[in-house]
Design goal:
This protein is α/β, with parallel strands linked by helices and about 325 residues long. The radius of gyration is 20 Å and the shape is globular. The strands form three sheets. The protein has a seven-stranded mixed beta sheet, with helices on both faces. A five-stranded parallel beta sheet has the order 1-4-5-6-7, with helices on both faces. Strands 2-3 form a two-stranded antiparallel sheet. The longest helix has 17 residues, at about 65-80. The chain has eight helices and 14 strands. The chain folds into two domains: about 5-150 and about 290-310, Rossmann fold; about 150-290, Rossmann fold (3-Layer(aba) Sandwich), CATH 3.40.50.2020. Bound molecules: ribose-5-phosphate.
Amino acid sequence: MNSESSILLFSGKSNPGLASEVAKDLKIPLGKVELTKFADGETYVNYGETLRGRDVYIMQSTCNPQNDNLMEMLIMVDAAKRAAAQRITCVIPYYGYAKQDRKAHDREPITAKLIAKLIQSAGADAVLTMDLHADQIQGFFDIRADFLYASGVLTKYFLQKDLKDIMVVAPDVGSTKRARKYAKILGSDLAIIDKRRPKPNVSEVVNLIGDVSGKVCLIVDDEINTGGTIVNAAEALIKKGAKEVYVMASHAVFAGEAIGKIEKSSIKEIIVTNSIPARSESRKIKVVSVARLFADAIRCMHTNKSLSELLGR
Ligand code: R5P
């Protein structure tokens, strides 16, 4: 498995744009696969070319509609296994259900682990994903798994902007480690917001650690879901004297009224990746591509080269 021509890359229905960009970067055509539904709603997969002995990559973000996208990917893996692929890698730019990674209350599931087990049981040999909600999810995989970070792509945008007096802000204590990494790349100080969630999908800023007055604040988060976290954080920062607020986030989930909330907020600009197909109906939202990152990672996996340099480690 050492010539790029023996890579086969197939796209599920979730993010064909990103898959096409990755295929272009790899200088291969996207693999032929029929993805349809029977009249009763069941998913049907049929590969249009031989997979026998090939290094197969199946690209699917398990974003909304999560269950359909997940099931489609699992069925694609099953079909690839039965078609005698030599190695099957699930390339999952956005790993859905990742927030359900522990039991926060009694009688709850750990769905992030369940998904990892399903992928493995379906017959995948490896997983390639990016910016998991929490790094500990890595331990849910018992097959080979590689983890990418969008930090290089997102910070590049701000390095080019050459903003002065910047302060990276972690929007909750859980994202401090991630934000510290961004602060190091951008050469800035770090502020931390103490966020509480009184109930699901509702967030409140309780406290701010750090002096942001006169600063250009860059909030770093793994995903923007309802938008509550970043919008509340931005308001709190402006109240504390921040000059401007920007946001960097790996995954643009944008559920419900998120975009409307962002439009009305004091956030100046939001930079997200295309791990989920862009819904950039707002002029405040800029999308940067992670296609090169994934193409490089696939090249490394295919040729058994180290990913460390790629990951800046
Ligand atoms: C929370 O732990 C995550 O890192 C994000 O801050 C959260 O998922 C964002 O959700 P929302 O946009 O709904 O506040």
